[in-house]
Amino acid sequence: MTVFKEKGRIRKVWSTFLQTFRRVRSQHDQDSLEQQSSMGKVKRLNRKKPLILAGGALAILAIVGFSGSQYVKTHTVDYYEVYMNGKLVGGVSSQEQVEQLVSRKQEEVKAANPNVNMVLDAGEITYQLKSAYKAKPENEATLAALEKQFTSHATGVELKVNGKLIGVVKDQKTADAVLKRVQSKYSPQPAAPKKVEVTALAYKSAAPKSDKPTTTVRSVKFVEDVSMDAAEVQPSDIATPDQVYLTLVKGTTKETKYTVQEGDCIGCIAQKFDISPQLIYERNKWIKDDEIKVGEVLDLTVLKPQVTVETIENVTEIETIEPTVQIQKNANMRAGQSKVIREGQSGKKRVTYKLVKQNGYLMSEEFVSEEVLESSVSSIIMKGTKVVLGEGTGKFSWPVMGARLTSTFGKRWGRQHKGIDLVGNKNILAADNGVIEFAGTKNGLGRCIIINHKNGFKTTYGHLSKINVKSGQTVERGERIGIMGNTGHSFGTHLHFEIHKDGAIKNPMKYL
Fold first, then answer.
1. First-last CA distance in the chain
2. DSSP code of 291?
3. Where is average pLDDT lowest: 61-65, 149-153, 257-261?
4. LysM domain: which residues (predicted)?
5. Could you give the CA distance from residue 356 to residue 346 in angstroms, rounded to a whole number?
6. Which residue segment(s) compose the domain that 500 sits in?
């Protein structure tokens, strides 16, 4: 190296100086011999010459040494040793060179996988400052060796259902969006608000409330345990949101057949297989009036998605309140004769039901509350005093004490429900005065009672466990006629109650 060359020059200068010094000293010794007789003053002068020469030599050496030191110092170079995870990789002129390499590699990794969150694994890079004379660190070789040790991986979020891995998405935001999309598939969507034009007179009258049914979603949740965990994965493991969504909702289909057994009904079969009655009706369109027979084969094949979305909804409907009938007796009129004194007027009430659905299929419903919006006006009919025993009043009381509505009248599970289902006190009461027209067993209704109220109305009481009356017997409103049960096409102890008027089925909620 250059530092050794400079030392060589110094030695050469010193060698030349010594040769010159010896020649001068030899000449001085010869002159001294020739002048030994001379004056002492001359001798003293001659003795000072070697001293002067020696001092000059020392001065020259000092100058030469100082110049060499400055030269070496001026040409000393600082550089950095680079370590990765504690192991020496090489040297670089500056830390910025390594930082620029790391930044560039990060951009390259991201550019190679634009739709994935990539992480560059650069390890732990540390530096140690070094100095050397005219040092020339091998920047390119060090950076190349460092780059070879870099690796990379993707980060994602694993979606699991009951511990089973369904798929991996790029981040938490994407996972949340996929799950929200699945829930939205089965959750009722709110209607878009209508644009209302405001006029100067708008304040004078309030807009009437709509009579259309309204739905309020109380909760939306997954039945299964759905978890999300951050994970380090390969870029190829990351799925698109659409892929994970389809995996969650598509599920599997397993063909299932069931042979109807003695005592079976649509509702109890649905409970046995934990499915909605609506699914049974959809897969077996040949079923009429809930009638199934022993030996018939039902198709219970259903799609089983990876997740089950359960929604609890409050459905509010506006129902008509049918007017009651007041009878005024007239002794001057014969039995069977009547005259309308006042026409009745229907009222309105707002009724709220709670519906529980799984993946859009109705699993259960329950009466929540009702609010009378417009009271009905009863009709007044004058009739002869010679009334027939068992003639009804036209006003119906609840056939069950402490009644709770569990299924409403109308379209339910894709079928027409001809009455309402009630639970409560097990004693079944006559809803109005009348004559027992039928007391026995009917297909679908099991043990049932039909009361003819002799005024155009008839009421039906189904699924009884016990009948306490006989055909032709006259009963009064509130009289016990039977015990609640689970006979016929039933799925749990309850009363099925119907009201017929002039042969047409009616919604009992309009009369009770």
1. 113
2. B
3. 61-65
4. 256-300
5. 31
6. 388-512
Q: Give the pLDDT mean for 100-112.
A: 89
Domain boundary among 126, 149, 172: 149
Alpha carbon separation from 169 to 117, 233, 292 (Å, rounded): 10, 10, 48
Separation between Cα atoms, residue 390 and residue 384, nearest integer Å: 14
Where do the DSSP E strands lie in 286-389?
Answer: 297-299, 302-304, 309-321, 325-330, 338-342, 347-358, 361-374, 379-384
Percent of the chain residues topping a pLDDT of 90: 38
pLDDT of residue 195: 44
Spell out where 190-238 has E strands.
214-222, 226-233
Long-range contacts of residues 47-52, Cβ cutoff 8 Å, at least 24 apart: 49/24, 50/25
Average pLDDT over residues 320-336: 80
Q: Which residues contact 444 (CB under 8 A, 6 or more apart)?
A: 289, 290, 291, 462, 488, 489
Whether 237 maps to a domain, the answer reads: no
* Residue whose entry in the numeric block shows the structure tokens 């020259």: 60
- Residue 287: CATH number of its domain: 3.10.350.10
Q: Which of 303, 304, 312, 298 is nearest to 270 (CA)?
A: 298
Dump the DSSP string for 432-496.
SSEEEEEEEEETTTEEEEEEE-SSSEEEEEEEEEEE---TT-EE-TT-EEEEEB--SS-SSSBEE
Report how far residue 86's alpha carbon sits from residue 92's, in angstroms, rounded to the nearest whole number: 16
Q: What is the mean pLDDT of residues 453-479?
A: 94
Supply φ then ψ for residue 108, to 5 degrees: -65, -40
Q: Which residue, 460, 456, 476, 435, is CA-closest to 381?
A: 456
Under 8 Å CB-to-CB from 235, ≥6 apart: which residues? Answer: 113, 116, 118, 154
Read off the tokens for 173: 């935001």
Write the CB contacts of 13 (distance below 8 Å, at least 6 apart in sequence).
60, 64
Query: Is residue 374 domain-shared with residue 271, that is, in the same domain?
Result: no
Could you say which of 28, 57, 74 is where a domain stops?
74
